[in-house]
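Hi support team,

I've been running sequence recovery on a batch of backbones for a student project. Most finish fine, but this one hangs at about 90% for roughly twenty minutes before it completes. I'm not sure whether the input is malformed or the queue is just slow. I've pasted the structure tokens below so you can try to reproduce it. Let me know if you need the job ID as well.

Thanks,
M.K.
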């Protein structure tokens, strides 16, 4: 598990980028938290810099959209899903389970 941030530091409708074995975007949407690979699968752009509406994030570069729950692309130009990660909130802190042991890059 990787510490993302305190709950208080991620307002609803916002996202942050954290560095793990790959960059990961963590989103706060209507009281729920989602984590996906931060890099759009169409072209190198940060999804944390994208536009969030409901459980969808739109890439800021070419407007590809992804479902934050599944990582599935919802429209072209993206054709490949982004990886999703389980998110755990404990003691007011948001953690992302990357499946990679800490200290391993």
């Amino acid at each position: 598990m990787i510490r993302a941030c305190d709950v208080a530091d991620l307002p609803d409708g916002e996202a942050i980028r954290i560095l793990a074995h790959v960059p990961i975007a963590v989103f706060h949407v209507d009281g729920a938290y989602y984590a996906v690979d931060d890099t759009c699968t169409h072209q190198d752009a940060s999804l944390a810099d994208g536009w969030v509406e409901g459980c969808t994030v739109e890439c800021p570069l070419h407007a590809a959209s992804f479902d934050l729950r599944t990582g599935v692309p919802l429209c072209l130009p993206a054709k490949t899903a982004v990886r999703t990660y389980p998110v755990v909130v404990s003691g007011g802190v948001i953690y992302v389970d990357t499946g990679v042991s800490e200290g391993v890059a």
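--
Follow-up from support: It reproduced on our side and the slowdown came from queue contention, not your input. The radius of gyration is 13 Å. No action needed from you.
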